[in-house]
Design goal:
Layout lengths: L2 H9 E4 L2 E5 L7 E4 L4 E4 L1 H22 L8 E6 L3 E8 L2 E8 L6 E4 L1 H17 L1
Antiparallel strand pairs: 1-2, 2-3, 3-4, 5-6, 6-7, 7-8
């Protein structure tokens, strides 16, 4: 495997129902999606996506103490670039993405995919 293809594969993480990647110095440095859809994001959209994931994760943790067993909640994080919506209970929720920029992309992740997706995003950020 060439050094370039090793760098490319290290920048793309994927699993059952999700994929995410980040390669700086490109017009669209980030890729988010599932095994059925994908969207390239600008750096600004990527930053909004990461901020939204963190915000929704924190909101779900906070909601956990206020919900009765069996109750679900919908939380939304909206910026100029995108809207992220989490629906379900704090331990198992689906995620929906809508881009507000010129490309107008929509897509989502099933509950089984959300935690691994979030872990992969955090790993990409740590990797720099």
């Amino acid at each position: 495997m060439s050094p370039e293809s090793q760098a490319q594969s290290a920048a793309l993480k994927q699993g059952s129902g999700w994929r995410v990647g980040y390669r700086p110095a490109r017009i669209f440095p980030a890729l988010v999606g599932s095994d059925r859809w994908g969207a390239e994001l600008t750096d600004s959209e990527w930053q909004a996506f990461v901020q939204g994931l963190n915000s929704l994760e924190q909101g779900m943790r906070e909601a956990e103490t206020h919900l009765m067993q069996g109750e679900s909640i919908t939380l939304e994080h909206t910026t100029d670039e995108l809207t992220l919506t989490a629906t379900g209970d704090p331990s198992c929720y689906q995620l929906f993405l809508q881009l507000h920029t010129g490309r107008r992309v929509e897509g989502g992740w099933d509950p089984e995919s959300v935690l691994p997706l979030m872990q992969a995003v955090k790993a990409l950020i740590r990797a720099g």
